[in-house]
Amino acid sequence: MPDQILDPFHRALAGLISEEIEKREKDLAHGSASRVTEDVVSVAEKYAAAVSYISALEAVLELCHSIETNQNSLGPRPAQVKMVQR
């Protein structure tokens, strides 16, 4: 989705958020929610917290998409569109 956002700030923000989501999903898939012996937080609690954070980041991406759509009457366009300054 970041490459469909025209505004440079929102495109950069969406790119960073997408990278963070991918990193957290990969970490979670590789056992970041595993339990350490002295850790009092359960695996289920760690997993739920990680998934909630990823869901929150996805919600922020949706907000970026909404802002882009509202700012551009034609809706989001690919980043490769050449803008001519007059």
Summarize the structure in words.
By secondary structure, the protein is mainly alpha-helical. The protein has one domain (2-71). It has 2 helices and no strands. The chain has helices spanning 8-29, 43-71. Helix 1 (8-29) runs antiparallel to helix 2 (43-71). The chain starts with 7 loop residues before the first helix and ends in a 15-residue tail after the last helix. The model has no long low-confidence stretch (mean pLDDT 79).
What is the rounded distance between the termini? 28 Å
List low-pLDDT spans: none
Could you tell me the mean pLDDT?
Answer: 79
Number of strands: 0
Q: Biggest β-sheet: count, sense, barrel?
A: none
Radius of gyration: 18 Å
Order of helices and strands: HH
Global shape: elongated
Class inferred from helices and paired strands: mainly alpha
The helix count comes to 2
**Helicity level, as a percent range?**
55-70%
Task: Name the beta content range.
Answer: under 5%
Structurally, the number of domains stands at: 1
